[in-house]
Amino acid sequence: MSLKKKIMLSFFISAAVIAVLAAFEYFSFIEIRREIRYLEITDTINRLSLQLRRHEKNYFLYSPVKAEQESVIVHFYLRELREILAKNPGLERNEQPSLHMSIQDYERRFNEIEAGVTKLQGVFDRTTASSSHNEKIFSLIEDTFIERPEQSAEYIEQNRLLPHGHMLLAGLRRLDADIRALRKTGEDILFISRDLDKVARERAETVISVSQLAILVIFPVFFIVGIGLLFFIGSNVVQRLRLLIAVVEKTGKGTYTHLIPPSPGKAPDEVGVLIDKFNTMEDELSQREAELDRKNKELIHTKKLAAIGTLAAGVAHELNNPLNNIHLSAQVLSKEVGEYCSPSVQEAVSDIVGQTIRVKGIVADLLEFARGREPRIQAVHLTELIEHVYKKLAVDKDNIRFTLDAGPSDVVMMADPEQMERVFINLFRNAIEAMPQGGELAAAVQSDGEAVTIRISDTGRGLPRNVLDKVFEPFFTTKDKGTGLGLAIVFNIIKKHYGEIHVASEEGKGTQFTITMPKESP
Q1: Is residue 137 scored above 60 in pLDDT?
Q2: pLDDT bracket for residue 95 (50, 70, 90)
Q3: Reduced to 3 states, what is the DSSP secondary structure of residue 26?
Q4: Sign of CA dihedral 239, 241, 242, 246
Q5: Which residues of 245-268 are buried (b: 16+ CB within 10 A; e: fewer)?
Q6: Quick one: three-class SS letters along 119-163?
Q7: What is the pLDDT of residue 96?
Q8: What domains does the chain contain, in order, with CATH numbers?
């Protein structure tokens, strides 16, 4: 991450902390307002509940005329409570069903009491009319029975004003039970309304406390985060700049070192990019030096090959004619001696012929190495060529297991078929000679875009690690017999085709030659 982005990030983090605080306080303000509104509603419910109970008591205390006025007021407060609950369906949460049900139950009981009172007044009228001698007593009881229906019933029974089981007595006792139930329901309404008011106050205080706590917590966090980020960015940049200055001073003195940043693996900022560019420059210089060294070695090797080739051409030319004469003379001598000479003479003549043929082969290799003609480019089917070379070598098929992997289709490239045949002959022959007890000889051809990769591997004796750099030098061999020119000829042919050849080997496990050549000749 760049320094600019880090600074911007630290600013945004600090701003985000403030924004979080502002947003939190904003929502806290909304929540406080909602809780205050909730508190106002619960306070209103509590106030209406108290007024309801007060007028309920007045209803039972006053005369029937005044009781009717109190009844109207009771129904008014009940309606107010229902409307508040209807407008605020989530007001009570878990408690609302009990308050709503209590109000419904209270209203139902109050209506039943009103109906019961009206019915009892009718009974009192009939009773008073039928008992003229007790008319004043019943009139007095009728004016006060709503307040104490049970005492009124007991008084009538004690004074035997009515027979036991009279419907008036039963009605008074039923009215008393209804009044007690109504008052119990009224107490439940008061309890619930007070509980709602208490919860509302606690919630409002909790929201206010949380808001205060947020201010006390987030402001220190803002200062800690802001100062911490500023210190971290500053110290990190200064530390890496000091390290870079020290390395640049060493570079100026001729010591090239690879700079490792203090925080590896992270996305680089401007200082990190500068360090990466410095390391890249060091790597490129190192690679150029290695490439220059390799080119110098190749140049020396090429010059050495050219000098040896010139010498080999001269020597081969001077030796070729005498060798031909010796070979012809030895053949004539072999025919002349026939069976008339002793076996030792015949063996000596045969040895002369054999050694002459061997020397002629060496001279032929020298001429092949020295001539180095330019390739005659034409289309070459690699699969067919490799199979043809293997069959041409007349290898013991029971001893050597040969495999060819050329993919789903044949690979065609532009090359000199004779020279490529010589390449595979030399590589196959070396592989076979490295496996006197038998083994696996594998050839693989892979086409990759504009290039062709050929791998020849065996499971033979392998080569020591210290001779791998010398295998393509002329006259170098690890065999008891050999000219050491086979791989040098292979190297020259591959180079003339603008290719590369590499060898990998391990003693006791085998050797692999990898050839990379362009499909089309440049």
Answers
A1: yes
A2: very low
A3: helix
A4: positive
A5: eebeeeeeeeeeeebebeeeeeeb
A6: HHHHHHHHHHHHCHHHHHHHHHHHHHCCCCHHHHHHHHHHCCCCC
A7: 47
A8: 25-216 (no CATH), 279-371 (1.10.287.130), 374-518 (3.30.565.10)
